[in-house]
Amino acid sequence: MLARGWTAALEGVEAVPVSVEVDVHNGLPSLELVGLPGAGVKESKDRVRSAIRNGGWSFPPRRVTVNLAPGHVRKAGSHYDLPIALCVLLATGQVPPGREGVWAAGELALDGALRPVPGVLPFALAARRAGARHLLVPAANAGEARAVGELDVVGARSLEDAARWLAGGPPPAAGVGSAASPQGGSAAGGEGLPDGDLAEVRGQETAKRALEVAAAGGHNVLLIGPPGSGKTMLARRLAGLLPDLDAATALEVTAVHSAAGVLPPGSGLLRRPPFRSPSPGATLVALMGGGASLRPGELSLGHGGVLFLDEAARFAPAVLEALRAPLEDGEVVIARHRGSVRFPARTQLVLADNPCPCGWHGEPRGPCACRCSAAQLRQYRARLSGPLRDRLDLFLRVPRPAYADAARPQGASTRELRARVEAARARQAARGQGGLNAHLTLAELDRWAAPDRAAERRLADAWTRHGLGMRGRVRVLRVARTIADLEGSAGVREEHVLEALHYRFAGEDE
Ligand SMILES: Nc1ncnc2c1ncn2[C@@H]1O[C@H](COP(=O)(O)OP(=O)(O)OP(=O)(O)O)[C@@H](O)[C@H]1O
Ligand SMILES: [Mg+2]
Ligand SMILES: [Zn+2]
């Protein structure tokens, strides 16, 4: 007896259809798995056997062959359990074929309970593309699968649940984790401010303004200042300034988190931009993705949001170096034996650090004068210099606040600033540009950010006096375009370019 079903294999954040065929024939009792199963998939055999027995069925005392096709696609993960078990039950006639063309994915516990698996959202996209009608998944994964739409998503808690439905029964009762919630994550609905409000930051008006500009245009930022000046506090509050994700980006972001296996159980579509802050000890693979399991890294988990590298100079030079290409291209490309895998990585980079090893370089007053040597300073700066600096738009000095600031009343709140950011984003979208200002090309800048004559003079001046180059000019114009958008100005004028130049050069050398 032969039975057939569908599932998918994860390749990066994409999934490709995989058919599951189970043939039960006479011969010595055995269970054989063919079709390039990885080591993890081979473990399916034991789980499937136990789950079937513990569900009250019998495992056939015959020769069982499971074929996962196409054979050239590498199969990894534990989600093959469910389709394999269901096909065994169908092939042995223990479950009558009630529904046809079903896609399924899920890991089985030995007692037959269904456990959530990574990649269900990409699986759902593959199923929809293939014209599938039903997708059967663990209840905890049903929310993300439903985010895809146009598919009948059935959330099951056990093999028994799944088998009953497959035989034509009603869908299992929805419970925790299978609610069709359109929101997910801790900051759902755009109301949550998980990292605090900007109003809590006293003083630091220049830095706050720069964060508003960075959020509005998607610009990369470097925050430099002495210990305790509030860099970490400020950077974390950038997250709250970002508008909710649009529908297409929300799907991409949720797909990346799903493929990485970091979506909380029961979550639906992620609506808030992610904010990732890996520790300085993060390896190249942790940051870029890849490795044996081919999971997305921090850079991709920050897609649609922010990648924050606090104490940036402590990251391995190879890690910082590797950021360059993805920052430019908006994706990470990982070469494999057979072709390459792409992860989306359109991320806004925020770096924070001290200006020198002791932390106090450039502080004019106080007891904490810098005692670093010129050589130490040079060496420290070199870590965050050159090519990486070329990819940053805003260089901010975050000084130790003056005492008067500590006693000051609170300034603008995250809510107020986000409203301004949203208005500036709407102006960018209204121009019909493909992305945010941070990604405008030179040609697009000519079209949408041509500076007026006074502004052009300021740029020429910076060219001769500060060594502004071609790349620098492009970056200054992008920021100036954002500043003009925040103001609601159609043209880029002198004051916009001046403010942008300030962010480029003021924080750089003191
Ligand atoms: N402008 C400010 N307004 C209110 N609180 C502040 C401000 N600056 C610093 N603080 C307080 O000081 C603490 C230290 O700030 P934070 O950790 O952001 O400093 P940092 O610049 O990241 O320091 P380091 O270089 O040591 O990492 C914060 O937890 C916060 O309570
Ligand atoms: Mg800090
Ligand atoms: Zn120092």
From the structure above, extract its key features.
510 residues; alpha/beta; Rossmann fold; Helicase, Ruva Protein, domain 3; five-stranded parallel beta sheet; 36% helix; binds adenosine-5'-triphosphate; binds magnesium ion
Structure explained in plain terms:
This protein is of the alpha/beta class and 510 residues long. The protein folds into three domains: 2-166, Ribosomal Protein S5, domain 2; 188-403 and 412-420, P-loop containing nucleotide triphosphate hydrolases (Rossmann fold, 3-Layer(aba) Sandwich), CATH 3.40.50; 440-510, Helicase, Ruva Protein, domain 3 (Orthogonal Bundle). It has helices at residues 39-42, 44-54, 81-91, 120-129, 142-146, 159-166, 205-217, 231-236, 247-259, 284-288, 298-301, 317-322, 324-329, 374-383, 403-406, 414-430, 442-448, 453-465, 470-487, 494-505, and strands at residues 2-11, 14-25, 30-34, 63-69, 103-104, 107-108, 114-115, 134-138, 152-156, 221-224, 275-276, 289-290, 295-296, 306-310, 331-335, 340-344, 348-353, 394-397. The chain has a five-stranded parallel β-sheet. The protein has a four-stranded mixed β-sheet with strand order 1-2-4-3. A hairpin with a 4-residue loop joins strand 15 and strand 16 (340-344). Helix 7 (205-217) packs parallel to helix 16 and helix 7 (205-217) packs across helix 19. It is elongated, with a radius of gyration of 27 Å. Mean pLDDT is 90; it is low at 176-193. The protein binds adenosine-5'-triphosphate (ATP), magnesium ion and zinc ion (ZN). The site of magnesium ion has 4 residues, from helix 8.
